Structure formats: C-alpha cells, structure tokens
# Entry
Amino acid sequence: MNKLWKTPGTMLLALPLAILCACASGPDRPFQDLARAEASIEQADQTGAREYGATELAAARDKLAKARAAADSDDNVVASRYAKEAAVDAELATAITRNRKAELAVEELNRSIETLREEIARNQSRSGDRQ
Amino acid sequence: MKILCVSRFLETGAPTRLNLVAGTGAILLALSACTTTPERIPELDQARSTVESLERQPQARQAASIQLTNAREALQRAEAALEDGQPVEHIRHEAYLARRNAEIGLAMTSEAEAAREISQAEARRREVQLEARTAEAERARSMAEQRAMQAERSQQEARASQAVAEAAIEEANRLADELNAMEGELEAERTERGLVLTLGDVLFDTDGDDLKAGADVSMDRLAAFLKENPQRRLMVEGHTDSRGEAEYNKDLSERRADSVTEALVERGIPSDRIRPVGLGEEYPVAGNDTSAGMQQNRRVEIVVSNSDGTFPAPAEQRAVAARD
# Structure
C-alpha cells in the first residue's frame, strides 16, 4: 500500500479524482450567509425584537437552525437559502421593532403636548376667574 | 409563451373547413392550457405586490434605498428564474427575499415618518411651552400695570378729594368770616349741618312772628350775601323753647321761619332759594330750666347750602323729619 502511494503515477491519478469529488459535492458551506444570519438575529435581539417582532425573530432562528443542519449534511444550496431567509427575517424583526418604538414615542409625545395644553387652558381659566 | 404555443399549433393544423372548426377549438384549448401551464407561485405574486407597495411610498427612496434595491433585484431574479424554468424552490426563495426586503423597506419608511412626526411634535411642544410662558409673563405684566394704575388713580382721587375738602373748608371759613364781619345779630358757625347762622330771640316779639326793625341790618346783609353767592341757598329753621304745647311751638317756629323768608324775598331774593322749616322745640341748644337757657333756645337758625345748592345731610334730615 505504502509503495503504491509513493509512485508518481498514482499521485497523478489521485489528484484529478480529488478535484472531481469536490466538484460533485457542489458549493462550499455558506459561511458568509450563516454569519450574516447570526449577526442579524443578534441585532434584532438587541433591538428588543422579542417584544414587537417575535414572530419574525422566531422564524429567523428556526431557519438558521435549518441552515446549519443543511450545511452539516453538505446540502449547501439549501443551507444558503435558509441562511439568507433567516437574515431577512431577522432584519424585518428589527425594522418592525424600531418602527413600533418610534410610533410609541410619537403617541407619548402627542399625549404630553395634550396634557401641557390642558394645563395651560386650566391656568388661563383660573386666572380669568381671578380678574 | 402563449404566442409560441399558438404558432406551433398553426404549423401542424390543416386548413380544411372541417378542420378549421376543430382547429379553432384546439386553439382555444391550447390557449387555456398555455396560460395555466406555468405553475402559479403565490409567493411570487405576494412579492410583486409588496414590492409595488414599497415603490408607491414616496419616502422609500430616501428612507430605505438599499432595501428597495434589494427587493427589486430579488424580484427580478425570481422572474428570471421563472422564465428560465428553474426549480420552484429557487423561485420561491428569491420571491421570499424580495417580499421580506420590501417589508423591511416599508417598516423603515414608516419609522422615518414617525421620526419626522417626533421632531415636529417636539417643535410644537416647545412652541406651546413658549406660548404658555409668554402668556404668563403678559398676564403678570398687565396685572402689575393694572395695580400700578389703580394705585396711581386712588392716589389722584385721594389728592383730589383732599383738595376738594380743603377748598370746602376754606370756602366755609371765608363765608363764616364774611358773615361774621357783617354788622347785626348774626353769628356764623361751622357745624356738621354746614355753615349755620343764628338769629337771636330778641329780633322777634314774644310769642309773635314779626321781625323787629332791629333785624333789618341782618336781613340786608343776608340778602347781600345771597346775591354775591348766587349758587347758595338757605334753609331757615325756626326753633322755640319748651314752654307751651309742642304743636303750638312748631307752628310758631314755622311762622318765624316764614317771616325771615318773606323779609329776604322783599329784598329781592327768589323764594325758591329759601326753604323755611319749623322745628318747634325739638332741637334745644340749652337747658329749658332757666330763663337764660330758654332764651337761647328761642331762635332762628339759617343753614347755608353747599355750593351746588344742596344741604349737608344732617340738615336735610332735620327738615325732612319736621315735614312728617
């Protein structure tokens, strides 16, 4: 056996085989897509998506898990799809959360203005009584 | 795709009449078959409509330009994959990416709108606060101004009424001096009823109402005074002591007051400037237990009016009480 490997002829034969093998197994593990999905989920989490974008965040986590599983069984095309979809799900969770928070801030501000106006109106009518 | 199907059929179809009918039916069949042939992918329809609604947002280009581009590109890839007859999973995947990117874009556009509202609302709040403070300051200022004006006004009024009072006192003193300087049985005195002149008992007969000749000088002076002070009027009060019936005394006091009035009218004073009042024995100035006191009580008092022709309140009250 050892003898066989050491002959240059065998080496020449093995190399194209190895290349062929690699080709047949399709694309590599989608590291970039997986990393982006992980980062997007992390960001959604930090934004507070668990409160306002829970459905999207859960979908993202689910798809990331599926992407990893697919990648582990060398099904890298499917892994890439799942990872990409996980990333946009997480980004949507973030966007929904930020939008909801902004809307709440608008409501809060409008309420405070209304309160202020009422207070002013009360003050004016009080001083009006005095005169 | 449709055109391709139809043209392919036409090539093979025979142009006979019978075949034409069959051919038309076949074309229709082929047409309907062709339109249903490409599998309907609901994810793609959703993606199209979501991308469209993002494109309709005027703010999308600013607020979510990357998402808009991503969504369009993914949708194009999905459409191209459909054209190329690529696997449905791949088309669905690209359509999903397109829809999600459009949804992200919509959320970001909405957030940008909210942010704009926040900045507007903050500006409005500052405005409202400023208005409130301005109104408060204005109110405080106008109240202070009013108080200052009121203080100024009451000060002026106080000064004015002091001046009037001083003038009245001065005038009364002048009148008293003027009358006291006159000869005759007149004595001017400032009382709460105003300036009062007293004509003594000696000017009348006992129990009589005729003025004695000795009163002429006093009457002349009084008439002269009235002519010099045309705005003044006189109230002539008759008084008696307490001897005899009260009714009789009241009557006597009235007649004496009338006598004085007549004397002045004779001297050219209009009767409406003189007001005779009989007060009887009601207002003694001394005790009725001595003859000296009784003599003091038998008198006629002449009250000089204010410069506007009215009498000071205490004098007016006596006159009104006597009439009842």
